[in-house]
Amino acid sequence: MRATTSGQQTTVAFESGEIVLLAHDDLGETVDATPRLVVDASGPVMPFADRLLVPTAGSSIEIIDLSGDPAPGESAACTGASDADTTRVGAVFTCDAGAVLFTREVGGALAAEPIPFPVEAPPPTTLSGRADRPDLAGVAGEIGAWLLDVRERRWTLLRSEVPLIRAVALGDDGSRTVVLDIDGRVRVLAPDGEVLVRTEPLLAASVAAPALRDRVQLVVDARHAYLTDPADGAVHEIDHRDGRVARTFTDLDPWFVQQVG
Q1: DSSP state of 26
Q2: From CA 144, how far away is CA 116, in angstroms rounded?
Q3: pLDDT tens-place string over residues 94-143
Q4: Which residue in 24, 102, 127, 149 could disulfide with 138, CB within 3.0 to 4.6 Å?
Q5: pTM
Q6: Cα separation values, 260 from 10, 25, 85, 181, 219, Å
Q7: Are residues 148 and 110 in the same domain?
């Protein structure tokens, strides 16, 4: 099962190919009448502008309506769609050769635009950012992190002296990126890769075990970063202005974290 969220809607995709579309405002009532359809998707299905963006056959992203029928708009080449996220600019898919940006044009039609990866570092498989901001970030192999300014359609490589395992763009005026390194430290990087903030190792046990490392999640808001710690059963709330751990929530078994409200 895979959930993909955009704005006030979430698609839940099952291995059978069934897609359930959830409207957040309706979740307090019932989900019995929510749209359900079966699609042959090879990646995350993104709800966007009252349509669904569907990676198909591993090579393109098609646009369908909420009934599953083809909808007006441009399909886009995308091999190996591995992730999808929304920004203030539009919906972004992570593909083998780069990102693909979908935007809504005047009149409602959707347009697709490729943003190819530069060649100086491995491409990310996921891109993450603060909700409703113009930037996304992802890990660039063992070299550092990629920062994607979606508004400018520009990639910036943030080199790191230690490998990184998570990267999330803040999308603020300073174009900062919050990352988790292989030692379990949270760092805040400037657009040139300078380390502005560095914490003590917070997740030493979690990052040392591959199975637990895969469960670690990092999400950010305007003031804090939230970091799950599966080994200790905790979630750390970190002030990303100075690296101070503001709070730690304990007695948990964190598998998924999402900001709401």
Answers
A1: G
A2: 18
A3: 999 999 999 988 888 899 999 999 987 899 999 999 988 999 999 999 99
A4: 127
A5: 0.89
A6: 13, 12, 16, 26, 12
A7: no
